[in-house]
Design a protein that fits this description.
Helix content: 25-40%
Number of helices: 8
Radius of gyration: 16 Å
CATH architecture: Alpha-Beta Barrel
Strand order of the largest sheet: 1-8-7-6-5-4-3-2
Largest sheet: 8 strands, parallel
Number of strands: 8
Shape: globular
Number of domains: 1
Structural class: alpha/beta
CATH superfamily: Aldolase class I
Order of helices and strands: EHEHEHEHEEHEHEHH
Strand content: 15-25%
Bound molecules: D-xylitol-5-phosphate, zinc ion
CATH class: Alpha Beta
């Protein structure tokens, strides 16, 4: 069985109590904190930046996975690294020099990854597999929590799983958008090993009950 990781997205947390929220979700079994950064330019929503990453850092020991939905990305990458990010991902459309941005993330001591929107082709992977620690497949269009899983993402996850296996490299395969207890196993069967879930976890009163239910679904894959 692969190592499965559950990554609650703070997008659906109570921002007025963010420290407590991330502590609670880690105590409930989260493996990673997924940190959604939006700029009202690349995506039609505006969220949080390095200051907030820095503020939650002392509250959690698990990795912080910064998902950049901003354009451009290079100037802010070192700031997120300083703010305690462990993983930084960006969308290929947001960088003019993808190879350079991936290297910049690694030079700042973080794991680096690319994110693919539902309509973004996978050919961006052709020449950078050796610079990737993680590949994130969006199963919704980025910008908002609480949207429905787009089924076409499953085929894409399977195609990326094939590329990762062929490469022989240790690259995480993350899926983001509309993941819940009812469909997490399907995403795992397609080849995902890391599962972002915002509304499915922070939208419920008992975080541990949801994470346990997700793990029991994954145990049956
Ligand atoms: C969407 C974000 C997601 C979002 C997921 O643009 O990247 O991480 O928070 O939320 P749910 O799990 O509610 O679809
Ligand atoms: Zn995200």
């Amino acid at each position: 069985m692969p190592t499965y990781r559950i990554a609650p997205s703070i997008l659906s947390a109570d921002f007025a109590r963010l420290g407590e929220e991330v502590r609670n979700v880690v105590a409930a079994g989260a493996d990673i904190i997924h940190f959604d950064v939006m700029d009202n330019h690349y995506v039609p929503n505006l969220t949080v930046g390095p200051l907030v990453c820095d503020a939650i850092r002392p509250h959690v020991q698990v990795p912080i996975d910064v998902h950049l939905m901003i354009k451009p990305v290079d100037r802010i990458i070192p700031d997120f690294a300083k703010a305690g990010a462990n993983i930084i991902t960006f969308h290929p459309e947001t960088s003019d020099h993808i190879d350079r941005s991936l290297q910049l993330i690694r030079d700042n001591g973080c794991k680096a990854g690319l994110v693919f929107n539902p309509a973004t082709p996978l050919h961006y992977l052709d020449h950078v597999m050796d610079k990737l620690d993680i590949i994130l497949i969006m199963s919704v269009n980025p910008g908002f929590g609480g949207q429905s899983f787009i089924p076409g993402a499953l085929k894409k996850i399977a195609a990326v799983r094939h590329r990762i296996d062929e490469s022989g490299r240790d690259i995480m395969l993350e899926v983001d958008g509309g993941i819940k207890v009812e469909n997490i196993a399907e995403a795992a069967r397609a080849g995902a090993d890391t599962f972002v879930a915002g509304s499915a976890i922070f939208g419920k009163p008992d975080y541990k009950a949801v994470i346990d239910a997700m793990r029991s679904q994954l145990a049956q894959v």
